[in-house]
Write a structure and sequence with these properties.
Elements lengths: L1 E5 L10 E5 L9 E10 L2 H7 L17 E8 L11 E4 L2 E3 L19 E2 L11 E5 L3 E3 L6 H4 L5 H12 L6 E5 L5 H10 L3 E6 L2 H9 L3 E4 L3 H7 L3 E4 L4 H10 L5 E4 L15 E4 L5 H12 L7 E5 L3 H9 L6 E5 L1
Parallel strand pairs: 10-11, 10-13, 11-12, 13-14, 14-15, 16-17
Antiparallel strand pairs: 1-2, 3-4, 3-8, 3-17, 4-5, 5-9, 6-7
Length: about 325
Amino acid sequence: MKAMVLHSTGNIDSRPLKYEDIPIPEISDGEVLIKVHACGVCRSQLHTIEGEWGAPMRLPLVVGHEIAGEVVKTGRRVSNLKIGDRVGLQPTYNTCNSCEYCLTGRENLCDRIERTGGHVDGGYAEYVKGVEQHTYLIPGNLSYQKAAPLFCPGATAYRAVCMAEPAPYKTMAVFGVGGVGHMAVQFARLHGARTVAVDRSKKKLELAERFGAVPVEYGDTEKLARLGIDDSIVFAPSDEVIAMARNATKKGGRIVIGVEGNVLDFDFRKEQRIMGCLVGTRNDVNNVLKLASEGRIGAEVAEYRLEEANEVLAKMKKGELVGRAVLVP
């Protein structure tokens, strides 16, 4: 099969992903083989490719963890999926199913978690494998391209918004209106909260405004103060933006951070609650798929060919993408 393969980390401008032939994955008894129809492009992949998070878990590696495709082969112990099913994969490839986190519906925190596009090859390829219990049926009215981003930015945004506890009497700010942030704006609006979108890109703010958010450019602290921010969500990987969100949020408010960053000069007297948000759980994914199938939320996508992955990631690094980029083999 064709795949974009990472052999060594490097700046994305050096085109470290190589378009080449590699073997189709072999599946075990509890796995399925999926023909990839679409794979979303996530900033975490850029961090992996450029080595910002240390050495990848394995090399060579195929990244990509928000995947939509079709089952073409099933293992002997697979009972709930069949050939021809339209399915998706999220960043969680497998979990232990026995720890306190797995047993309480928080398998995203499992200490023995395995990652799609990390521990095993991911979706920047024509085929990928998935474990049955972490493979999801895609509703029939969703295209592969629209479904793929629901498995990472969709589920992550959903979880972050739930953690922030929006309500009709609250104003919630989303800092960073990229692939995840533009989904968070939609979920906040579903809860009835007045939603504020904060970004430096006019195109991203225009997208957020289409979804009903009040647009605010980075640095406009006066406008944020006038709006009265009850709770904030941060999806921009910047200490400066995290500080901006903390300063803008009212006393007693929640600040949910879904990116790498540092909380500096924390003022305990404000009684703010700062929480981290990882990827969504299986329950989060299923809720997002249901909302999308009902037409209540949706990802803004732009399609690119699989072999354009280096160029797409470079655009992401420069902040040129609006919504979510999706690679189509």
